[in-house]
Structures are given as C-alpha cells and as structure tokens.
Design goal:
The protein is mostly helical and about 200 residues long. The protein has helices at about 1-10, 15-45, 50-80, 80-95, 120-135, 150-160, 165-195. The longest helix is centred in the first third of the chain and has 30 residues, at about 15-45.
Amino acid sequence: MPVLVKENFNRWYSLRSYYLAITVSDIPFQAVFCVVYVSIVYYMTSQPPEAHRYWMFLGACLLISFVAQSVGLVVGAAMNVQNGVFLAPVMSVPFLLFSGFFVSFDAIPVYLRWITYLSYIRYGFEGTALATYSFGREKLLCFQVYCHFKDPETTLEELDMLDASFTLDIVALVIIFFTLRITAFLFLRWKLMSAR
C-alpha cells in the first residue's frame, strides 16, 4: 500500500491501470497451478475419463480459486496486515459452515439459510459435486455385499443436491468474483483518497 500511494501520488500510473495489471498478471499463474492440481486430483481419485465432466470440474475449481483470491484482495485492501490475518479466517468460518459440506441444507434452520446463498464455498462445493456425481454418471464399482453410495444419485441425495443446478453455481461464482473485485478496487480507491 505505501508503494501504491507514493507511485500513484507521483502520477506514474492510475489506480485503474495498476489494478488491471495486477488482475491480468495474477490470472495465468492462478490458472496454471489450479489446472495442474485439479488434473492430478481428478486422475488420482479415479473419476470417469469423460472430457465434459473433467472440464466442468476444472471450471468450478478455477472459479473457486479466483473467488478465494478475490476475498484475499478485499481483506488486504480493506484492512491492515494485523487485522486481516485475524479477521479473514474468522469471516470465512460462517461461509464454510453454511456451505453444505459439514451440515446439510435441510439441517440448517430456516432463519439462517440465507447465509448459504452468500457462501462462495457452497457454490464451489455444489458445482464440483454435480460435476462428479451428476449428469448420468454410471454406478460406482463396489466389491462389497452392500454399497450404500454405489449409485451417484444417492450421494447427491445425501448432500441435498438433487435439485441443484451446475449452471446456477457457475453464474453465482462469476457474480461473486466480479463483486469482490469491484469491492477491492473501491477499497483501494478509498484508501488512496484518504491518504492524500
């Protein structure tokens, strides 16, 4: 922040060009590392070798990583380092709790369900689960007498995701991404104006 304030004050570049440069330069690195990681995970967990399913899974994971990075940008732009290190995990806990990963959506009280619609973790979890278990996936191999989760629909039913929409999850992640990026930009602009 001190470097940005000094260089912006000297009119070396505008905040828009700085922010655009940071965003554009970060995306390739974020994407490459995510693609490598997801490719390894997808192969090692023996997911079906279907291109459309892999691309759906990868797309959801890419958006999750972009949104998570944007959360970090907002926290970094809005707070100093000491407060950000403490408050960022504290702010992430409700999103994690209401993502459907620990507690199913039906178990969440009605007056708290609105939080699930704000959780980017929920949309990411739902998107990856749908890419993995939905869209006509064949039954999983099982060598036991009884396998409760042999049918992929059973897994989605247990997760309360039978009526979920992959498209809605992707759109929600894109909206959250742009909202967070704009919010980080506005916080940076506010800090630059208050520093003058």
